[in-house]
Specification:
By secondary structure, this protein is an all-alpha fold. The protein contains 20 helices and 3 strands. It binds zinc ion.
Length: 426
């Protein structure tokens, strides 16, 4: 009887044992070894698959991923807010409270030791889930190979010509768009409505590239957008919930492009240059003029920045060709970046750089800029002779822009044949 009572007392949980950290720390002594083996196995899997991109493309990117990560997005899109962000906030709060209640002092050391023992297997499980739900897309075949785009080193004059066309197209797309009191482009019916419309561009893009088809995505507005602003992050894709998330402090001219970029990630394209290019493409084909402008503005910035890095005067000449409206919008984007510049943003950049390199992106954060190579490759499929740039002039801003739908004709020809009528000649 006595032994039973003693046993019952020993089995009865105390108040402190009920806190969150105790749950995490109930792991077997061999768990770290298992966690280590799982991490090594995951790294080995990535290493092997990085050498078989065709296999990853066929079996994972177009096979397993749409059934796993893609389906997750189908479910979570039903929620108006980001489930992934809520989970992170709840976990952060739970850990903070658990640490706060980590008393008395004599119990801290053994419990922290058990917590450390749990950390590796938990991290290993998250890492493997990341790979299976999305991360292996870093090892898929480059989009340029799938789309038969001719990516190769380009001459400066090719880059200058591309920049001139993109600046011109951004100028044309800016005409007639609504503005706020400061003359900054404004999304016609608000930012949340705009986010909900992002998918429309992907329906058009999928008719060009069926690999872009998928469950309609719903970009989520980040509740903690201000935190992401200080980190210099415009959007983030949560692989564990299949949700594209967007920083809602972004100025209107950039918001549609940022949302489209995150949806591309959800479609299974992990590399940043491809997310930029396909996001631009989805914006360019979008029925909403605000999206068409946002994509073109972003592409023009990447192209002009690349040119300026090689030939400052040539870059300045292109900048001088921007219309007053696009200049005001770019000034607003610059002001946004300056407002949140600081140590947190620099650390965040370094973390992102290290993360991208760990996933096989040798250029780290500079890989975003490789979108220019894809834009140049696309342009090779559209000979310059049929798409000459036209400098912006005040008279060209008087409403003679291209009709809606012209671009659809353009891409329909441009990607399947060699020639494509350009926007302003239509
Ligand atoms: Zn991205």
């Amino acid at each position: 009887m006595g032994s039973i009572e003693v046993g019952s007392e020993a089995l009865r949980p105390t108040r402190t044992e009920l806190d969150g950290l105790e749950i995490l720390s109930r792991v077997r002594p061999g768990a770290p070894i298992v966690g280590l083996l799982l991490v090594v196995g995951g790294l080995g899997l990535q290493w092997v698959l990085a050498r078989s991109p065709e296999l990853v493309e066929r079996v994972f990117a177009r096979g397993l991923y749409p059934l796993l990560g893609g389906r997750l997005g189908c479910l979570t899109r039903l929620l108006p807010i980001s489930l992934g962000e809520c989970i992170v906030l709840v976990l952060a709060g739970w850990l903070a409270v658990a640490f706060w209640r980590l008393a008395p002092a004599r119990e801290r050391r053994p419990r922290l030791r058990r917590l450390r023992r749990a950390a590796l297997p938990v991290a290993a499980a998250l890492y493997l889930a990341f790979l299976l739900l999305w991360g292996l897309n870093y090892q898929r075949q480059p989009f340029a190979v799938s789309a038969r785009l001719d990516v190769r080193p380009s001459r400066i004059d090719e880059l200058a010509a591309l920049g001139a066309i993109l600046v011109d197209e951004a100028n044309q797309a800016r005409e007639g768009l609504p503005e706020d009191g400061a003359g900054i482009m404004r999304l016609a019916d608000g930012r949340l409505h705009a986010l909900a419309r992002t998918e429309a561009g992907f329906r058009e893009a999928a008719s060009l590239y069926p690999v872009l088809a998928g469950c309609p995505a719903r970009p989520k507005p980040l509740l903690t957008s201000i935190v992401f602003s200080w980190l210099g992050v415009t959007g983030i894709y949560f692989p564990f919930t299949g949700e594209p998330n967007v920083n809602m402090t972004l100025p209107d001219p950039e918001l549609p492009f940022a949302a489209a970029h995150e949806i591309v990630h959800q479609r299974g394209f992990a590399r940043e240059d491809e997310a930029n290019y396909l996001g631009y493409l989805a914006c360019r084909l979008h029925p909403d003029p605000g999206f068409r402008y946002s994509g073109r503005l972003a592409a023009s910035v990447y192209a002009v920045n690349a040119l300026t890095a090689l030939d400052r005067k040539a870059g300045d000449r292109l900048e001088a060709g921007r219309s007053p409206g696009t200049r005001r919008d770019l000034a607003a984007l610059l002001a946004w970046a300056e407002r949140y510049r600081g140590p947190a943003e620099r650390v965040s950049q370094r973390v992102n750089d290290a993360y991208l390199r760990s996933q096989g992106e040798a250029q780290g954060v500079r890989s975003y800029g490789r979108v220019v190579d894809l834009l140049l490759a696309e342009r090779r499929a559209r000979p310059s002779s049929v798409c000459p740039p036209r400098p912006w002039t005040p008279s060209s801003a008087q409403g003679d822009g291209p009709p809606v739908g012209h671009d659809l004709t353009c891409r329909g020809i441009g990607y399947t044949l060699e020639r494509c009528p350009c926007l302003h000649d239509g």
